[in-house]
Write a structure and sequence with these properties.
CATH superfamily of one domain: Aldehyde ferredoxin oxidoreductase, N-terminal domain
Strand content: 5-15%
Structural class: alpha+beta
Number of helices: 26
CATH class of one domain: Alpha Beta
Largest sheet: 6 strands, mixed
Distance between the termini: 39 Å
Shape: globular
Helix content: 40-55%
CATH topology of one domain: Aldehyde Ferredoxin Oxidoreductase,  A, domain 1
Radius of gyration: 22 Å
CATH architecture of one domain: 4-Layer Sandwich
Number of strands: 17
C-alpha cells in the first residue's frame, strides 16, 4: 500500500498493552484519513452513550495520506474523541512534528483507550510502545513537560502533552505541542487527563512512500513556488492572521464585551502592527513555507516573556474581555498555553463572567479589562478553584448551573464557545458556526470574508450553497488529507493541486466529485454520531441545536457603522432549512435514511432504529 500505511496502533492504558491492527481499505478510500478516519473509528469503537471521561472513551491521533510529504503545510494531524464539553464528536487539528513522526512510524492513527492506574507518559517508537511512569511530570506545565521529555528522550522526540487544566478535567482543556501549538477545543485535554495520560512522545524511523514519488515531488515543488510568488505572501509572513484584527474592526465583527459589540475602542493597541513591533521570531508547522506563528516578546509592570499569537486568541483574550494593550493579552495567552487551556473558550468564559458580574447575576466581581483579575481567574480555571471551578465547565455548563437570566448571555452552539467573529450582522457566518461539526468553530467554514462580499444583510440561499461547498473543502478535504488550508485561503494556492497530490500519494484517482462525496459522507457520519450519543442519554435531536446564540437575535449592536443590527429569525431559519436540504437531512437536522444509504452509511441505520431515532 502506498500513501496510506494500512494499519493503526491500538493502545490499552488500563492493561498496558498495545497491538497493530489493520486499517480496513474501504475506511481509507471512503474517509481518506485524519478527521474522516477518526470519526469512523469512534463510531466503531466507542460504546454507545459512553461517558467522555470514562476509560471506555477512545482518544484518536490521526494523520492523513498527505501528512509529512514534501508539499505545502503538510505537517498536520487530528486529535479526536467524544467531547466532555459537548457530549458529541470533538476534534482539532494541530501543526506539529508529532504528525510527521507518526507517519514515520508507519501508522494511519494511534487509538488510545482505558485509564492508567498512575500518571503515564507514552513513548512510541519503531521499537514499540513504552509505558513510562509519569508521576514526576504530573502537575507540570506543558512547557516544563516538553522540555523535560526532550532532555530525557532526546531532542528528536516530538511531544503532545496536557497541563494542569487537563489533569483537573477542565472541560475546555486542550492538547499542547511545541510550546504553544494547541488542539482539541472541545475538551480533548480533559480526555487525556481522565486517562492519567500526561503526554505522548513519538519518534519514527522511516518515511512513508507515495504511489508516484516523482509526480508528488514535482507537484509539491511547484506548489511551494506558487505560495512564495503570491502577491500576498510578504504581508502574510509579516502579520499572519493578526491582520484580521484591523479587518474585523472595520467590518464590525470583532468580538467585544462577550460578543455584545463588533467594534473595540482600543483595537489599535492589539492589532497586527503592534504585534510586528513586538515580534522576535516566526514559527511554522513542519513542511510549511508560509509560517504564521508570530512569537512576541512582551513586558508588563509585573512580568515578561514570549508568547505565540494569532487572531483568534488575541481577539478572544483582548477585545472580547476588554483587555488591552497587546503585552497584557500576550501574557494571558502564555498562561493558557502553559496550563493547557483553549484560548478561544477561555476568552469566552471570562467574558461571560464579566457580563454576568456587570449585570449583577454573579456574586463574584470581575470588571472588563481587569488584568490582575483575569490573571487570577485564569489560574483558578486551570486548577478548578473558586469561581474557576464553575467556569471550568465551559460557558454552557456554567450557565446551566446558574440558570435564570444567565442563559441569555452564554455564547455557544452545541455547548462549544463561539470563536472570534461577532455575527449580529453576519447570518452566513452564524450558520457556519451553527452547523460546524464540532460546535461553534470557524475552522470548517471561515465564511465571514465571503459574507462581506455577498452582502451583510442578505439571507439569500446562494449563501447556504457557498457555505456547504466551503465546509466540504475546509472540513471535509483538508481535515482528512491532513494539510493546512492557509496556502489556499491566504495566498491563493489553486485548489486543483490537492486532488492531484492525493492521487499521486495514494495511487487512487480522486476527482472533485469523489472528494465532495467523501466530504458529504464525513459530515453525515459526524452528525449521526452526535444524534446517536444524544439519543443514548435520552436527549432528542432538534433543529434548535443548530441555532446561534440568542443575543445575536435579541440584543442589537449599539456601536459602530452597523449599530442597530441583529439577526432575523425567519431569514436564518430559511437558510437552515436549505442547508438541511442540501445535506440530505430532515427538518431536525438528522440524516435521512436515503442519504445514509447513498453515502455508504447504511451501518448507521440499525443503531438509529434501536435507539428510536426517527428516520425519514
Amino acid at each position: 500500500m502506498r500513501g496510506w500505511s494500512g494499519k493503526y496502533l491500538y493502545i490499552d492504558l488500563t492493561n498496558k498493552k498495545y497491538q497493530y491492527l489493520e486499517t480496513p481499505i474501504d475506511y481509507l478510500h471512503n474517509y481518506i484519513g485524519g478527521r474522516g478516519l477518526a470519526v469512523r473509528l469512534l463510531w466503531d469503537l466507542n460504546p454507545v452513550g459512553v461517558d467522555p471521561l470514562s476509560p471506555e472513551n477512545h482518544l484518536i491521533l490521526a494523520v492523513g495520506p498527505l501528512t509529512g510529504f514534501p508539499l505545502p503545510s503538510s505537517g498536520k494531524m487530528v486529535v479526536a474523541s467524544k467531547s466532555p464539553l459537548t457530549w458529541g464528536y470533538g476534534d482539532g487539528n494541530i501543526g506539529t512534528r508529532v504528525a510527521v513522526e507518526l507517519r514515520n512510524l508507519g501508522v494511519d492513527a494511534v487509538v488510545i483507550k482505558g485509564k492508567s492506574p498512575e500518571p503515564t507518559v507514552l513513548y512510541i517508537s519503531c521499537e514499540g510502545v513504552e509505558f513510562r511512569n509519569g508521576r514526576d511530570y504530573w502537575g507540570l506545565t506543558t512547557l516544563e513537560t516538553e522540555r523535560r521529555l526532550k532532555k530525557e528522550l532526546g531532542e528528536r522526540v516530538s511531544v503532545l502533552s496536557i497541563g494542569p487544566a487537563g489533569e483537573k478535567l477542565v472541560k475546555i482543556a486542550t492538547v499542547i505541542s511545541e510550546f504553544g501549538r494547541s488542539a482539541g477545543r472541545p475538551g480533548i485535554g480533559a480526555v487525556m487527563g481522565s486517562k492519567n495520560l500526561k503526554a505522548v512522545a513519538v519518534k519514527g524511523c522511516s518515511r512513508p512512500e507515495p504511489a508516484d514519488r516523482g509526480e508528488l515531488i514535482k507537484l509539491g515543488s511547484e506548489a511551494y513556488r506558487k505560495v512564495k510568488e503570491s502577491q500576498l505572501y510578504e504581508f502574510w509572513v509579516r502579520q499572519g492572521t493578526m491582520a484580521t484584527i484591523e479587518w474585523s474592526q472595520k467590518n464590525s465583527v470583532l468580538p467585544t464585551y462577550n460578543f455584545s459589540e463588533g467594534v473595540f475602542e482600543y483595537w489599535e493597541g492589539i492589532d497586527g502592527y503592534i504585534m510586528e513591533s513586538m515580534k522576535v521570531r516566526i514559527k511554522g508547522c513542519p513542511n510549511c513555507n508560509m509560517p504564521c506563528g508570530n512569537v512576541v516578546k512582551y513586558v508588563t509592570s509585573t512580568e515578561s516573556g514570549e508568547a505565540e499569537l494569532d487572531y483568534e486568541n488575541v481577539a478572544m483574550l483582548g477585545s472580547n474581555i476588554g483587555l488591552a494593550p497587546l503585552n497584557k493579552v500576550a501574557h494571558i495567552n502564555l498562561l493558557a498555553d502553559l496550563y493547557g487551556i483553549d484560548t478561544i473558550s477561555l476568552g469566552s468564559v471570562i467574558g461571560f463572567a464579566m457580563e454576568l458580574s456587570e449585570k449583577g447575576l454573579l456574586k463574584d466581581r470581575i470588571e472588563w479589562g481587569d488584568y490582575s483579575g483575569i490573571k487570577e481567574l485564569t489560574r483558578q480555571i486551570a486548577y478548578r478553584e473558586g469561581l474557576g471551578d464553575l467556569l471550568a465547565e465551559g460557558v454552557a455548563g456554567a450557565a446551566d448551573r446558574i440558570r435564570g437570566e444567565a442563559l441569555k448571555y452564554a455564547v455557544h452552539v452545541k455547548r462549544l464557545e463561539v470563536s472570534a467573529y461577532d455575527c449580529h450582522a453576519a447570518p452566513g457566518m452564524a450558520l457556519a458556526y451553527a452547523t460546524s461539526p464540532i460546535g461553534a468553530h470557524h475552522k470548517d467554514a471561515w465564511f465571514i470574508a465571503t459574507e462581506v462580499k455577498m452582502g451583510r444583510f442578505s439571507y439569500a440561499l446562494e449563501k447556504v450553497e457557498r457555505l456547504v461547498w466551503m465546509q466540504n473543502i475546509r472540513g471535509g478535504m483538508f481535515e482528512s488529507l491532513v494539510t493546512c488550508r492557509l496556502p489556499w485561503v491566504e495566498v491563493g494556492l489553486d485548489l486543483d493541486y490537492y486532488p492531484k497530490l492525493l492521487t499521486a500519494a495514494t495511487g487512487v484517482t480522486y476527482t472533485w466529485d469523489r472528494i465532495y462525496e467523501v466530504a458529504n459522507r464525513i459530515y453525515s457520519l459526524i452528525r449521526s454520531f452526535w444524534v446517536r450519543e444524544y439519543a443514548a442519554v435520552g436527549c432528542g435531536w432538534s433543529y434548535e441545536l443548530d441555532v446561534p446564540p440568542a443575543k445575536w437575535f435579541t440584543q442589537p449592536l449599539t456601536k459602530g457603522p452597523l449599530r442597530g443590527s441583529k439577526l432575523d429569525t425567519d431569514g436564518y431559519m430559511a437558510m437552515l432549512r436549505h442547508y438541511y436540504s442540501m445535506r440530505g437531512w430532515d427538518e431536525n437536522g438528522v440524516p435521512r435514511k436515503s442519504t445514509l444509504e447513498k453515502l455508504g452509511l447504511s451501518y448507521v441505520i440499525p443503531t438509529f432504529e434501536k435507539l428510536g431515532v426517527p428516520l425519514s
